[in-house]
Recover the amino acids of this structure.
C-alpha cells in the first residue's frame, strides 16, 4: 500500500483553500438556505432553554465565513510567488505556515498549523519506530525550512514584533532509544522544548536546562501553565482577571501559572 506523503513534498499547484475552493456542485443556494432554515427551527424549539444566544452568534459567524471569499483567498497560497513558496518548503506543513501568514495579514487573530499524522500511523512526530530515518528525511528538514520561512517572512514584512509564534507539543520523547525497527523514542513528559518567536519575546534566548541526556530538568523548570501565562501576558491580558465557569464560580485566568520573564524582550 502506498500513498503520497505531503510532509515530504507536494507539487507547487497544491492549493490551500476551503475544501476544494468552492462548494460541492450539488450544494445550491436553495439547499444551503434550507439547511439554515432547519437549524433555525431546531433553535426555535429549544429557545426557551437558551439564555445567552451564543449559538446563534457563532452560527452566523460560520455562515459569514462560507459566504465570503476573504478567508478562501487568504488560504490560496498559489497567489504567492513561487520563490517565496519554495522558501517555506514545498510540503503541506510549509505551505500551511505560509497560509497562516496570509491569514494574519487578512485579519485573523489566532491561527493554528498542525503537523499531524497522514495516511498510515507513524508519519508524524510520534516516532515510536524508524526514529532516525524519519527525523533525517522527513521531520527535521520539513520543520526547519517552514519555521525559518515563516519567521524570516514575518520579519521582512515588519510583522514579527506584533505576531507571536509558538511551537508546542503535548509531550517530549524518551531520552533512550528503544529497540523498534529503525530505533524509536516513546512518550516523555519530564522534559521537552517549546519555541517562541516574535510578539515581544527575546531573540536568541534559551531558558532552562536539562541533564546531558535531555531526560530531567536541572535548571529553571517551566510548566505548561507558565507558558500559557506568558502567552496571555504577551497578548495584553491581565493575569489577575477572574472568569466564571458555567456554574458561575470565579476562576483565575491561569491558576498556578507565572510569566516566564526571562523570555521577554
Amino acid at each position: 500500500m502506498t500513498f503520497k506523503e505531503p510532509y515530504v513534498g507536494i507539487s507547487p499547484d497544491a492549493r490551500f483553500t476551503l475544501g476544494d475552493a468552492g462548494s460541492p456542485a450539488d450544494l445550491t443556494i436553495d439547499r444551503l438556505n434550507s439547511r439554515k432554515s432547519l437549524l433555525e427551527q431546531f433553535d426555535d424549539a429549544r429557545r426557551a432553554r437558551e439564555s445567552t444566544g451564543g449559538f446563534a452568534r457563532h452560527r452566523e459567524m460560520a455562515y459569514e465565513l462560507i459566504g465570503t471569499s476573504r478567508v478562501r483567498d487568504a488560504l490560496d497560497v498559489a497567489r504567492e510567488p513561487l520563490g517565496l513558496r519554495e522558501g517555506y518548503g514545498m510540503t503541506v506543513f510549509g505551505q500551511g505556515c505560509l497560509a497562516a501568514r496570509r491569514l494574519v495579514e487578512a485579519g485573523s487573530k489566532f491561527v493554528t498549523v498542525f503537523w499531524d499524522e497522514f495516511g498510515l500511523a507513524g508519519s508524524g512526530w510520534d516516532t515510536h519506530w524508524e526514529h532516525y530515518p524519519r527525523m533525517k528525511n522527513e521531520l527535521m528538514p520539513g520543520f526547519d525550512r517552514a519555521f525559518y520561512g515563516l519567521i524570516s517572512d514575518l520579519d521582512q514584512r515588519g510583522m514579527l514584533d506584533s505576531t507571536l509564534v509558538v511551537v508546542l507539543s503535548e509531550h517530549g520523547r524518551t531520552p533512550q532509544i528503544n529497540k523498534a525497527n529503525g530505533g524509536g523514542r516513546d512518550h516523555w513528559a519530564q522534559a521537552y522544548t517549546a519555541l517562541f518567536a516574535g510578539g515581544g519575546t527575546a531573540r536568541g534566548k534559551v531558558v532552562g536546562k536539562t541533564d546531558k541526556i535531555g531526560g530531567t530538568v536541572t535548571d529553571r523548570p517551566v510548566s505548561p501553565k507558565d507558558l500559557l501565562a506568558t502567552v496571555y501576558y504577551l497578548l495584553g491580558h491581565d493575569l489577575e482577571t477572574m472568569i466564571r465557569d458555567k456554574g458561575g464560580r470565579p476562576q483565575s485566568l491561569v491558576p498556578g501559572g507565572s510569566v516566564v520573564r526571562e523570555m521577554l524582550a
In short: The chain has seven helices and eight strands.
